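Chapter summary example.
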Amino acid sequence: MRLEQRLQFIEVATKLSPKEIQIVEQTVGVCLSCLGLLPRKTHEQVALLQGAADASVIEKRRKKALAKLQKIFL
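The structure predicted for these 74 residues follows.
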């Protein structure tokens, strides 16, 4: 059962854009392709890496990506 859920989550995560995947992975600290642990980064650090103007932009993109994941998963 757990393996099926993992596979289903990984399949759903592939429907996000590469930038959305990167933002979610870096802020949450979980690799969406293998569900392994990654070092977490702050919104400010991710904004610098993504070239965003402000951390609030990253927060909005993260919320949209997580909502999209939730919508697809359910």
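To summarize the output: The helical segments are 2-13, 18-28, 43-50, 55-73.
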